Amino acid sequence: MATIRFEDLALQYVLSDEPEQERIVSEKAATAIEESTNSRITVGQWVASINRWIQPADDSNDDNFIARAKALDFLASTLEVLKKRNVSLRADQVQLLVTFFGSLFSSDHRAGVTASTKALRQLVGMKTFQPTLGDNIIDKLSKLGEDFKLQTPTTRLEIYELLLDLLQNPAVVNDLEYRHGNTCGFVSDLLDLCRNERDPQNLMKWFEILKIFLQNFSPSEDITSEVFKTFSAYFPISLREASTPSGITADDLKNVLRSCFAAHHRVANHAIPYLVSKLDQGDAVTVAVKVDILQTLDACLVQYEHPKKSVVPFVDQIWGSLKYEVRNGEIPDTIKATLKVIRSLTSRLDEGELRSFLADAWRDLRDDFSNPTYTAQAGRLLVAIAGASFQSFAIITSQAIPYIQQTLRHAQSASHKQELLALLNSILAVRSHLVGTLKSDATTEKGSGLLKDELFGDALFSEVYLPLWEQTSSAPVTTETVGILKKIMEGLAALVGQQSSDSGVPRRLCSDFTCEKIFAWLAGPSVVYPLEGKQFNEAAPSADQDIRDAAVAALKEAVPLYPSAFQLLLEQYLSTLKVAYQQQLALHDLPLEIELVANTLSEVGCSSVSGQGLTLVNPVSLFNVLLEGLLWMLSEKSPPKYWTAFICSIHISFVHVLETLQSQIGNSPQSQLQDITKEWYTLSVSDIQDSGAPRLDLNTPGNLHLVVEALEALKSEEAGVVYKKLLAYSLAIVGQLYRRFTTVHSQSDEAVDNWPRVGLSKDFENGPESTAEQDMVLHQLGRLATSVVRVLNENEQKALGLGKDAFILFHRTGTGSDAPQIDLPANTAGVSPVDEFRTAPLSMGILQGLYPGVLSLEEHLKALNNVCSVLTSDPSPCSDTTRAALDTTFTILSNKIRVEDDVSEEIRQIQHKMMDISKTLWKQDYETGGSGAIAVKIFRSILHFLAGDVARFRSSPEDHNALFKMVCHEAPLVPTMGRPFARLFGILVSPKECLEKENHAVVKRLSGGWVYVRAVQPFLKDCFPKTPAVHPDACNRAIAVFAILQHLRYEQYACDVEQIVRIGNMLLRWLSEAETGSEMEACISVLLRILEKSPGTIKEHLGGLISGMITVYEEYRKALGQRESETERKRRVVCRKLALEFFQRLPTSFEEQHLLPHRQQLLRPLSAACGDPVREVRRTALAARKAWESLA
Predict the structure, then answer these.
(1) What pTM does this model have?
(2) Which tops the pLDDT comparison, 1122 or 407?
């Protein structure tokens, strides 16, 4: 290797101003030293290479200082590279270098400090560094004296880092202790050197140095006092954000300073009196500072060793100060921090000291419990003390519980009782926490007296909660008594969960009789009374909901602690609703309450679901009770609205349980789930059904107790397995409900084409007066099916044959879950025509949840053709309600059937069929007798087909979009019917549940833009009438355009927004006297969105738009007295509100000079609008008027 001249390297380093170049030079020098065969000579040459800059020169020249600093940095950087490579110099070389660099602190304050400190840090880290050199380095550093504070913050940071390296080196620490003893003379010099530090980043290091010194050395009392004075002078510390470019926060500084106070118990004599005296300054201390003091005191109490020396001497002083912070305090943050200190203080005391402290504390607290003014504060202190340790809990509660019971008996005010109950409840919560801690604590000797088991069981129930419940529940309900009832229920829930603290198997302290009584009480306001239509207290019905909510919250807490209670609640639910129905109790509200209470039960049942030990007991029990209730209602020939209530309840419960299990699976490391197969499904469902579950399809009630016993006998399983079993059983429930409410019409009765078809069951023979309620049952059952089916993955849907079940509605050739499906040829697939297609919602429900890959081209293309024939028939073969389900089915099939090249021809045939029918209908003369209503229905169905098709649009082949093109070009121009057709165009892109991603619809990201380019943009020019004669056509075209734009994102039509604003301005005038509000709603909604996104485009049309909006509001308000449908009335309200919203947003969208010309024109209409009969409209009018009045 060629000889390297260190002088050349040093010169390159000094002349370089690129960090990368400096690094390369340093690495070359380090390599030369590392590979040298004679390190003594090499290191000497390396050090001598900077002599030219070190020699005395004209020190008045700044260039000399810069060059000398760079030269020294060359040595420091080389040492840094050597240290990274774990290369050490010889001990004598290290010593010489330490001496050299150390000398620069006293001889070269301007140029040498930074580089010397950096170099010394590398030398300290080398293996050959001698610990005796540490004292020498500190001594040299101290020579900086007053020049230290003249150094830059970065240089001082290097010095602090060097000191940290030294004080964290055990060998150096031992040498310093040996040299200085407890006088620690070296630290006195450092305290003088650094006491004026103000830079945040440097303070972080300086405080850490002081902490380490206190922990690693044994200084005398005088030195300890000096160190304490040094860091306590900064307390409390704050920071201006502008002065922290380093990223150091005020909390960072507070934490590191706090660590100095808590560094060692030898500081206690100084720290604790200092902090307490700071705290006792009263109002002179801000809340933030007081919290800082308390947190620092807490850190001291927690971290000090030898509590008999560091904590016990100050117990009285701390308690005497802190008790008043809680007793008289009003700031929650301060009170919280104080209670934490008291808890920490208590936890550090043992035996005699603890008993003495608790005796003093009890004397102070006892009288406060009798004083309503201070009961809550005393309770907080008591809970903090009791929760500190097992011993403190046992000692203090043995005195407190009897006294609280006695005080409760003599308490006069409701608020006082409420505070005492809150205290009891908190003690119960603390005890439950301690029992949980005890289970994992192997060191504590367990025994029944450890947590005073005898005080927390039936005795507490009978002496406190029982008499209070009986007294309060029968008394007139006031705001105060509602509060008491809430606290009683909260306490009952906590009491149920109390367990023993002895060494045996944990047992419940309350007897089963007591627990069942508690749950009977809690079930009253949450389950029984709502179903019976009763109030918990008839004198104050307004408080009923509060009490009900409190009971539900208590059940959520209590049921997981006493699992069998859930079965008791289900039994009460079932028995109560039967009585309520038979005795005609509150029948008007009963269907709604059936749902609400079922929702409560699902929440309560799910509250016991945890990450481990999952079972199906609660979810399956709830489902079975709801099925049992539905079966009973059917046997009673109840109105269909009760069936709907139970189906909705099953739906709500399924969704709730599913979400809970999914969250558990998401938290589980084993998230891979096995697919459901046909065999596994059959086995899983049979296990539940054969054990006694109700079967509505077989009209057989179940035995709920047997099912519970069978499920409890099974081992707890992983969340994923329970999830799949629940899903399987839920699908079985859907299947049996479908089979219950439908029946197969075979060849011998109402068969069609000699093939079996599915119609409604005998349950629907109540007569035409209940048809609407019956249809609601079918629609809700279809929605339930969707929620269950869509959760299954594609492979599971295929394995279970759900594609075919969409048409045979889960009917089987036998009664078992493993029975094969009834046979239905592919060419007859479709919605059953029996009973006027009323089973359509059931087919729709299944299809909506299927993956596109599950649909069979052979079967579902035939079904699509079938639905097309039904919906394009004249007259319509079904009711409007059924037709809505068929329209949705049409959308689903057109969206999910995979349009491959070999399928496109059949799709085109269906489209051509609709084109031919449309042309025929559009040629009729509706003014002289054509059926306009059926034409609108058929056109709406065609749009539903296109909505599914355009969501997953295909631009080629072009003839695939022939129907879409024809509708867009011709429908708005159809004589007479163009207007009703135009307002329906929004169906193409309006939000639809069946096209949501969760239902596995095929929706392309650019579908909205594609529709705009094909159905809107080409026709914008046609919205401007060329002559008055074509005004209706232009109006219809504009209505169609805005019907679509209403459901598109602004970005999709932003390129034509100026043209759209012009059209909107004209449309406002044309529609101001329109019969329907849907057209106006679409127009104003789009204009509002444009005003939000691009107000500049509206500026030149401001006058016309303001006049148009005024006319809209006035005309739509005039129509208030007219006869109109509820839907149209609501639309007119919406239009009035939207017009006023337009006015409200103008002042925030434009500068005043653009609005002032219209101010007077607008103020009077806005004042009139403030008297609108609809509250929401009035609120918007008031806001708009305020905005316009504020204009100068």
Answers:
(1) 0.83
(2) 407
Count Cα atoms within 13 angstroms, Cβ side, for 355: 2
Q: In terms of DSSP H, where are the helices of 304-374?
A: 307-310, 315-327, 332-347, 351-369
Q: What is the average pLDDT across 1131-1151? A: 91
Cα–chain center distance at 1182: 35
Q: Which structure tokens are listed for 1142?
A: 């337009």
Phi, psi of 923 (to 5 degrees): -85, -10
Do residues 205 and 167 make contact, with C-beta atoms less than 8 angstroms apart? no
Q: Helix, strand, or coil here: 921?
A: helix
- The dihedrals phi and psi of 761, each to the nearest 5 degrees, come to -80, 180
Of 405, 401, 411, 420, which is closest to residue 463 (Cα–Cα)?
405
CB 124 within 8 A of CB 165: yes
Spatial contact of 428 and 495, defined as CB atoms under 8 Å apart: yes
CA atoms within 13 A on the CB side of 909: 10
Burial 158-175 (b: 16+ CB within 10 A, else e): bbbbbbbbbbebeebbeb
> Between β-strands 742-745 and 757-760, what pairing exists: parallel, antiparallel or unpaired?
antiparallel
Sign of the alpha-carbon dihedral angle for 760, 763, 769, 773: negative
**Helix, coil or strand: residue 717:** strand
Say if residues 138 and 179 touch (Cβ distance below 8 Å). no
What gap in Å lies between CA 853 and CA 856, rounded to an integer?
Answer: 8
Task: Read off the pLDDT of each residue in 574-581 and give the average, rounded to a whole number.
Answer: 92
Beta bridge partners of 752: 755
Q: What gap in Å lies between CA 732 and CA 276, rounded to an integer?
A: 69
How many other C-beta atoms can be found within 10 angstroms of the C-beta atom of residue 683?
13
What tokens were used for 348?
């550090």
Q: Is the dihedral of CA 1139, 1143, 1144, 1148 positive or negative?
A: positive
Element (H, E) at 831: none
DSSP characters over 1104-1122: HHHHHHHHHHHHHHHGGGS
* Spatial separation of the C-alpha atoms in residues 700 and 395, rounded to whole Å: 59
Mean pLDDT computed over every residue of the chain: 86
DSSP 8-class letter at 526: I
d(CA 57, CA 933): 107
DSSP 455: G
For the beta carbon of residue 612, count every other beta carbon within 10 angstroms: 9
Percent of the chain with pLDDT over 90: 44
Helix (H, G, I), strand (E, B) or coil at 1138: helix
Is-contact 1021 1010, C-beta < 8 A?
A: no
Instruction: Enumerate the β-bridge partners of residue 760.
Output: 742
Q: What is the pLDDT of residues 224-272, one digit of tens each?
A: 999 999 999 999 888 876 555 667 888 899 999 999 999 999 999 999 9
Name the residue type at position 509.
Answer: L
For residue 749, pLDDT beyond 60: no
Beta bridge partners of 695: 700
- What tokens were used for 1022? 């046609």
